[in-house]
Amino acid sequence: MKKFQKIACLTAGLACMMNAISIPVLAEGENYIYGTMNIPYADFYRAELENSNNAYEVDAVSSATNTKWSKNGEGELFEGSYGQANEDGSGQILGVTYPVAITQEDLETLADNNYNFQALDSQPEAYKIVTVTDGKANFSAVQDENPETFEATLKLNTATAWGDYQIDVETAPENLGAIYGAILKTQEGNAYAMRHEQNIWRGEFAWSSGIKTSEPHGNMLDYENFESLMGETIEEIIYIAKSGYYTTINDGLYIPIKFNNTLEVESNTAGTGITALTLENFPDDYDPEFTIADNFVITDNEVSYTDALAGSYTLNVSDKNNKYASFSTSFILSTEDLPITYDKELNKLVPADGFTEQDASNFIKNLATVTINEKEYSASGRGSVQIVQEDGTVDFTTENRGEAIFDGSGNYNLTFTATGYANALTVALTAEAPTEASTEVPATTTQSSTTRTNSSGTSSTTVRTATSNNTSNNTSSNASNNVSNNASNNTSNNNATTLDTGSPKTGDKSAIPVAMLALAGFSAIFSKKKK
Description:
By secondary structure, this protein is mainly beta.
């Protein structure tokens, strides 16, 4: 339908050229010129919200995030918006740069206050009509002869970091392009305007209704005009694109009511036990339903559990009547046990003596940090780096933001911590000593020791029997890539294990010497000739 409109516009343009008419003529007989204007949010949305029960003035968006607010070029994060910078590098998104139709007379009346009018070569698919009264510009709703509708699945998140609610629209049209604006319309007759950065983010919509009033970057969220959205049902979302309106067809999305409350579970020791539950400031008609792991039982003021492993747990509570939003809280069950050790042959974390595969797997599942030569990496959550695979394998090829984490030297002090485990595992890996122009590698000695500090601060050290390893090997005199280093680590509350790993970067402990292969080949040729 949009393509048909383009053809019609081209035809009309050709007719104008044939009749020596330089300015397009619209249906109502007005002579318009077309261009774009920087339209403040208040002016952009005024006509769009005109018939809603809750019509309100739409404000600019303040952003404490340096430069992100200015990403408004083609293909950028907030394409179609415009803003201004503050002296401290922060800025504001003021509104939308959108096509308009205006008469030459009205444009001249605006003079320098023309909203940065930039002329277009042809009539756009969609635009706002600008009229000027007493020197003030008024903007119509978007003029779109062929608005489109599409079936959509709306997914609601009430635990988003970007406000109180977030909607993901699945199956949005591929030809939608940049979103210049959007309106949520409810069955109750209200309409809510969405603005860039604070509400519109990569095709998702988020807002605060007054419970969470700031987001992770420190930006304060405007919520006053969204408080009434709680308890209403969204019947359609209207996108405003460069080519006009796109409207969702959906089954209706109820927005459950949120409220400030206290929901806490006290952390405790793993195994079998009982811990305190606090549930306060919930409405009288909130009918709670609790969910957690299978071996947990929840009552009004306590949580009991049987044979629970160490780690982080989440308690969810929902309203059986579906009137109110669901809430959740996390707590930790902890242990002094350290159920893993490091296997140098496999380059992976494996069960320690006396522990099962399930025990080791649970430690790996709850990994919090991995420290490599004093540099700590998060192993879970936002910005985490997966150094340890699900099966416990340590990936020595892991990169973080395009850079290798391991330097290839083979000398690494590794520390693994996990949520719920009071003790960490520390492993010291050392590379084999290099040799200069030698056909043999001297015997190397590997010593493994375990140091543990208990809760009283007393440490004990167990030294295992040293083992020797004689290897006959032919090496090149250019062995600059091998590094000899004795790595040690004495860390409070850690188990320290020193291991000879050969080459932890690749897992290979030896290679076939080039000289040996050459000698074998020469011998074979000589033998053949002799025969």
